[in-house]
Amino acid sequence: MSIIESALEKLRRSAAPAADEQSAVVRRTPGRGPTPAAVVAAPDAEPEWLRKAITLDLRALRNAGYLPDETLERLFAEHFRRIKRPLIARALAGGSDARVILISSALAGDGKTFTSINLALSMARERDVSVLLIDADVSRAQVSGVLGVREERGLTEALADERVDVEALVVRTDVPGFEMLPAGRPVEDATELLASARMSQICARLGARNPRRLIVIDSAPLLAASEGRVLLPIPGQVVLVVRAGVTPQRAVLDAIALVDKNKLQGLILNQAPLGSGDGKYGYAGYSGYGSLDQ
Hints:
- This protein has 10 helices and 10 strands.
- The chain is of the alpha/beta class.
- It has an 8-stranded mixed sheet with strand order 3-6-7-5-8-4-9-10, sandwiched between helices. A two-stranded antiparallel sheet has the order 1-2.
- The longest helix is centred in the N-terminal third of the chain and has 23 residues.
- It is globular.
């Protein structure tokens, strides 16, 4: 072999590993062209651009009673500004658990789902935070049904299988800063799944994604199902919804007794008659009542 041939052969051998290394560094994402391996999603994480997105039908939500009538929209916007302001302040000043806010009630029919949806939408209007609404009332899955994602995979799938990346199940919406995690398929052992360490891990994972993300959990009523009670250790803030003139006082007191007083941030009085002056808005400390019209 000539000196030139030997040099060419040596060059080919040294180039081969480099070519193999380059092929390992560049991968192709379908429809997106070459993508550096450093930004390729992990096998169990769905790429951001493939995540499901929905458009909220605000008219349908309003007709179904989950958004206020247009004539009361400005009034309700002010109600929820007063409700959200102390919650956001505590969330941003406290630790990661303070960014997890649980909305519940003593009994079914108190207006918990209405409040969860409207509070989350109001928070999403803030410039400095985003909101993830979790439907953790998995037996009824009312939030998922209202927003049209009842058939989507969600919380129960993530709870049942630790290999599932819960972030890949989060549904984006056309409302800037507002996302939601569906309840997922109904399961018989919902209480056990919600009480497991996996639920705490899921909330921590979702919170770690963005330090400015607030997590609003719509839970089952505290006195109607054990599913709601097992979630109480997780959030840093808890708000209870009470239906004016309907929820028995004993039930309200029993629900309050279940909640850590350091976490209980207030009661929202739903469907109360309009008062006058400053008495019309709907948020107060748990030792007092505000009023929130629906």
